[in-house]
Amino acid sequence: MAYRLLSSRTDQPIHLGITESGGRRNGSIRSAIGIGSLLLDGIGDTLRVSLADDPVEEVKVALSILNSLKIRSVGVQIVACPTCSRKEFDVINVVKVLEERLSDVKDPLKISVIGCVVNGFGEAENSDFGVIGRRTRSVLLNRVENKKKFVHNDIISEELEDEVRKVIEIRERKCGSNCQSNSKQES
């Protein structure tokens, strides 16, 4: 409430942050709600996420908030189904592995990890890359290069990471140091 009142009375830059937000999980949620709701209302010029955790996590949470609100696009955004009895591979593990292996990627890319074909193609439609579960071999989509291939379910993470890194390498060769600023932004 105080930020909203202050915003209506000044043109000075406003710094957003939730003090004593907590540990990684609860602090991330509290920060996302508190900071995100203000940013959605057009309030805030800088932000700080404070967690009882590694400062690197604070930066990751801050970037996730900005990415989620489409204020800034940087890094890989992974969307995934919540898993159900139709899933054909270990969605949860694939997401964890990809988040770790692709944490260094700065290009704004969206990856869908969908466990079955029922909703898979529709849910992966707006992603740069996707994997859609099938019995033993899942469909790997590379929408950047308009390709698809079948991959064995036990090597999905490796194959998807390879596809992402190949595209990034091609982009870097084409546009050099300006790549990130010229990368596709979400609409």
Would you give an account of this structure?
The protein is α/β, with parallel strands linked by helices and about 190 residues long. The chain folds into 2 domains: about 1-70, no CATH class; about 75-180, Sulfite Reductase Hemoprotein, domain 1. Helices cover about 45% and strands about 20% of the residues. It contains 7 helices and 7 strands, in the order H-E-H-E-H-E-H-E-H-E-E-E-H-H. The strands form 2 sheets. A 5-stranded mixed β-sheet has the order 3-4-5-6-7, sandwiched between helices. Helix 4 runs parallel beside helix 6. It is elongated and about 60 Å long. It comes from Candidatus Riesia pediculischaeffi PTSU. Keywords: 4Fe-4S, Iron, Iron-sulfur, Isoprene biosynthesis, Metal-binding, Oxidoreductase. Its cofactor is [4Fe-4S] cluster.
Lateral arrangement of strands in the main beta sheet: 3-4-5-6-7
Q: How helix-rich are the residues, as a percent range?
A: 40-55%
Which structural class is indicated by helix and strand composition? alpha/beta
Count of strand segments:
7
H/E element sequence? HEHEHEHEHEEEHH
- What is the number of domains? 2
| Total of DSSP H or I helical runs spanning 4+ residues | 7
**End-to-end C-alpha gap:** 30 Å
- Net shape: elongated
Strand percentage: 15-25%
Assigned CATH class of the largest domain: Alpha Beta
Pfam families: GcpE, GcpE_C
GO molecular function: 4 iron, 4 sulfur cluster binding; 4-hydroxy-3-methylbut-2-en-1-yl diphosphate synthase activity (ferredoxin); metal ion binding
Cofactor: [4Fe-4S] cluster
InterPro entries: Dihydropteroate_synth-like_sf (IPR011005), IspG_bac-typ (IPR004588), IspG_C (IPR058579), IspG_TIM (IPR058578), NO2/SO3_Rdtase_4Fe4S_sf (IPR045854)
